[in-house]
Amino acid sequence: MGVVTPPTAKAPKQDRSRATRQRLLEAAVACLAEVGWAGSTVTVVAERAGVSRGAAQHHFPTREDLFTAAVEYVAEERSQALRELPSQNRAAVVAALVDLYTGPLFRAALHLWVAASNEEQLRPRVTELEAKVGRETHRIAVRLLGADESRPGVRETVQGLLDMARGLGLANLLTDDAARRRRVVAQWAALVEKALG
């Protein structure tokens, strides 16, 4: 009789593979946020993740694969953070949305957007991903705000809030705009409350 390998024998290798993939994604996001697209090579990401370039390419055959997966990871992390927000007043929801768009996850996504504007092979992947993320974020925001989109202007109000949050995230790339941002967020929270009733 042959030796039967227990079903759990593969688990440690699969766990290591998942852990390596996770480290690569986190390192790619950190690199994009800190040094942008030009400085974020597969080699730099692999070094930061503590894995070989070969291991990185095993998981992500191309640079575009790696960074598209990193932005998908960022998007899921952003959506998960939104989904986990407790029911709270609308002002707190507005502030939480802005926090997501002014943090390092969004900074990494912005760098990828800029790269996609110049990289033909990357553009369709990022455009499709961001459209999906935008729809998901809008749905979550509607739920968190208790918005009734059957009322005229409500959909546009929610979308305007998200556009404003993205704009604040973009402004945050160049300077720490926290003091002005707090005032803008307070004003938007009041506008949203009035518009959504």
TrEMBL record:
Gene3D superfamilies assigned to the protein according to its UniProt record, in alphabetical order: Tetracycline Repressor, domain 2 (1.10.357.10)
PANTHER family for this protein: HTH-TYPE TRANSCRIPTIONAL REGULATOR PKSA, HTH-TYPE TRANSCRIPTIONAL REGULATOR RUTR
Name this polypeptide is given: TetR/AcrR family transcriptional regulator
DNA-binding region, residue intervals: 41-60
Keyword match DNA-binding: yes
Coiled coil location: none
Keyword DNA-binding among UniProt keywords: yes
Keywords of this entry: DNA-binding
PROSITE patterns: HTH_TETR_2
HTH tetR-type domain span: 18-78
